[in-house]
Amino acid sequence: SSSSSSSSSSNAGPGTNSSGIANGSNSSSRIHKSSSSDQIDSNVEKGRSKVGLESKATDNHFSLQSFVAYATHIPCLAIFIAHFTFAWNHYVLLMWIPSFFVQKFGLDLKQAGTYSVVPYIIKLAGSIVGGQLADKAVMLGVRVVVVRKVFNAVALLGCAGSLIMLSVSESIEVGVNWLSMALGCLSLTTGGHSANILDIAPTKSGLIMGISNTVATIPGVIAVPISGFLYSRFDWSYVFYLAAVLDVAGAVFYTMFASDVPTF
């Protein structure tokens, strides 16, 4: 009987202890999450105070007033403009490059489609590498806003220069190389304005991204017909020059006004 009681006690002990550990672990996790959330809120309040905005408590729900606050906040505008210029390049190249290859280099549509694929594979790889390199720079101690500005400037200015060179390319091989360079540079925005939303709006990143994506759809509506008009009235170089000018403007504005202060 004593042995049975001891065995029962022995069996009960570990079970009780495991439950205690599990409960303690869950409690610790909740405390950690709560602490992290409190820290984010504290950082946002400090950021808002630093840039002269009212307390975050006034905009817990989306409203016209909060929308105006997001849309007119200069660091947010810097993101929106950079995203707009990124999207202009994206839509123009996506829609017009096959036609450009056909008319500039005398390819048929099948050949043009084949040559158009390679640069987008490079863009995919660049998107992954760009984000990793930006994170690595931040981990090494480079200030976040410096990383964002450098990556965004390299992305947009590199794309601008590559598009100009693409417009004067004399062979399909050279043209594909410059298109690959343009899209490869453009992909580095993953370490620039794309990630910057989380820096300045850790508690409202979804709303800010929604506004930014809305702005970025505008080129999807106007960039393609405007580019078609420029080509039909002039030539392909004007299509790429316009994109390059927008890239430079977007890079300059973002470099001047981007921030890493958590504000929303």
Structure report:
The chain is globular, with a radius of gyration of 26 Å. Residues 1-44, 46-53 and 55-59 have low confidence and may be disordered. The chain has helices spanning 2-51, 64-72, 74-105, 109-139, 144-167, 172-186, 193-200, 205-233, 236-257. The protein starts with a helix and ends in a 7-residue tail after the last helix. The chain is built from 9 helices and no strands. By secondary structure, the protein is an all-alpha fold.
Give the DSSP E fraction (strand runs of 2 or more residues): under 5%
What class do helices, strands and sheet pairing give? mainly alpha
Mean pLDDT across residues: 81
Q: Gyration radius, to the nearest Å?
A: 26 Å
Mind summarizing the main beta sheet?
Answer: none
Q: What is the distance, rounded to the nearest whole angstrom, between the alpha carbons of the first and last residues? A: 66 Å
Helix-strand string: HHHHHHHHH
Q: Features of this protein?
A:
disordered N terminus; about 260 residues; about 0% strand
Please render the helix and strand layout as text.
Elements: H1 2-51, H2 64-72, H3 74-105, H4 109-139, H5 144-167, H6 172-186, H7 193-200, H8 205-233, H9 236-257
Helix pairs in contact: 3-4, 3-6, 3-7, 3-8, 3-9, 4-5, 4-6, 5-6, 5-7, 5-9, 8-9
